[in-house]
Amino acid sequence: MIKRLLFFTIAIVVLATSVLFIQKWYISSQGESLSFSLNAIYYFHFAAYLIIVVAVELLSKKLPNQVGFFYLASVFIKIGFFVLIFNNTIFGETPLNMLERITIIIPFFMFLIFEAIYSGKLMNAQ
């Protein structure tokens, strides 16, 4: 349990940090600026990632057949919290341009893929 969790967490930290710096470099090289904090979005997704994988890991010990359903529900809850927390960013008075939209989507899918792989490996291990 700890080994798998540590491996995935280190992998996502390295990947997320790399992608974050690449995104920041690209945005600055284009002479653009974002109307929101990119760091805050990455912190949110990382915290949600940790909560989800720890909860999935603990749930797999008690109810191994329900891990997939729990993961699916946790993704919807994560999206709900994201919209609640970043409501002004997403639904602000000024619409987001394409660069800002892509900047929001990249970390979402990156963390979502890691959560899905983690949950899938956990379900296949049983």
Low-pLDDT runs: none
State the end-to-end CA separation: 12 Å
Main beta sheet strand tally, sense and closure: none
Structurally, the number of domains stands at: 1
Number of strands: 0
SSE topology string:
HHHHH
Instruction: Return Rg in Å.
Output: 16 Å
SSE-based structural type: mainly alpha
Report on this model:
By secondary structure, the protein is mainly alpha-helical. The protein has one domain. The protein is elongated, with a radius of gyration of 16 Å. The protein has five helices and no strands. 16% of the residues are buried. The mean pLDDT is 91. Helix 2 runs antiparallel to helix 3, helix 2 runs parallel beside helix 5 and helix 3 runs antiparallel to helix 5. Helix content is 83%, strand content 0%. The chain starts with a helix and ends with a helix.
Question: Key features?
Answer:
about 130 residues, mainly alpha, about 85% helix
